[in-house]
Design goal:
Blueprint: E1 2-8, E2 19-22, E3 33-40, H1 44-49, E4 56-62, E5 66-74, E6 86-90, E7 102-105, E8 110-112
Length: 126
């Protein structure tokens, strides 16, 4: 899958601060939902996490914690969601982020199209 990631925590005006990468597509297992990402935002968490520091990642780290999209697959322990559901969510800082063509997280932080805030989502995600 295509993603935007970092390996070094550089100033944002450095052209190497964010890089385009190709990563294996995640697999939905357990309580995971696998989502085809249609829209993302920049959460304050994103800017805090990627702020300059001396740390170097051994593997590309995908940022992005807010996203909207369509459920492509569900883990065997998931209830209340189906393939094809339109969802938006805040991800988990300990997992790969949503700045990718596919993302996954645990459904505890997810909401579905019944939420009254869905009017804020782009039409293709409603």
């Amino acid at each position: 899958m295509k993603a935007v990631a970092l390996t070094h925590y550089l100033p944002i005006d450095d052209p190497r601060s964010l890089i385009d990468v190709e990563l294996p597509k995640p697999v939905a297992g357990g309580h995971d939902l696998l989502v085809r990402v249609e829209a993302v935002s920049v959460n304050p968490v994103d800017t805090k996490v990627r702020s300059p520091k001396s740390q170097v990642e051994s593997e590309p780290r995908v940022l992005g914690y807010d996203a909207a999209g369509i459920v492509d697959a569900i883990g065997e322990s998931v209830t209340g969601f189906n393939v094809g559901d339109r969802v938006y969510y805040a991800g988990d800082i300990t997992r790969s982020g949503s700045n990718a063509s596919t993302s996954w997280s645990m459904p505890a932080s997810w909401d579905t199209r019944q939420n009254p805030w869905t009017w804020l989502m782009p039409p293709q995600c409603r």
